[in-house]
Amino acid sequence: MTIQGIKKDSEARMKKSIESLKGELTRLRTGRASAGLLDHVQLDYYGAPTPLAQVASVSVADARSLLVTPWEKNLIPKIDKAIRDAGLGLNPVAGSDNVRVPLPALSEERRKEMVKVVRQEGEGARVAIRNIRRDSISQVKELHKQKTISEDEERRAEEEFQKLTDRYIDEVDAVVEAKEADLMEV
Question: Which PANTHER family would you find in this protein's record (predicted)?
């Protein structure tokens, strides 16, 4: 393993941490409708748990509601039940050929609770990124111990990993701030 290889691996893992954070934050409901809100909803489709997106199209009807149009009409009751059981606090309205999902307005108290959850998710991502830095630095120290790199190279690599870590932690902060602003917007 070379310093460059360790750096590429670390950067790829840090990017995955950011993507994971964005995925987790997509699940949190803001006051605005987003088709991503139902990404994690699963329903029973011929005996197999299936993601909603594979059996229906999910679109934003307006700022406060989603429209789920199944490809098979007999799935409407199952989609209705799956959304109710998903733990999102939503009450879908089944129609003859689609399911409308109105999004209730968030109370101030609920918004503040969600901001706390966003901050916890952000802290989790920061910890993951710092752990990646720690692993990378220990790999570089191991290379130095094996005498494959010099002390100067080791120190330079540690500085590079710190800069990389700072950059990704700043990105986490930006993602968290954007989500907080989105949540607090009335």
Answer: MITOCHONDRIAL RIBOSOME RECYCLING FACTOR PSEUDO 1, RIBOSOME RECYCLING FACTOR
Whole-structure pTM value: 0.69
For residue 154 the two structure tokens come to 């080791």
8 A C-beta contact, residue 25 and residue 118: yes
Residue 43 phi/psi, 5-degree rounding, is -135, 165
Alpha helices for 28-150 (secondary structure H):
76-85, 108-145
| Residues comprising the chain, all counted | 186
Residue 41 half-sphere exposure, CB side, CA atoms within 13 Å?
28
State whether 51 and 97 are in the same domain. yes
CA dist 21 → 9, 17, 101, 165, 185 (Å): 19, 6, 25, 16, 21
pLDDT score for 29: 64
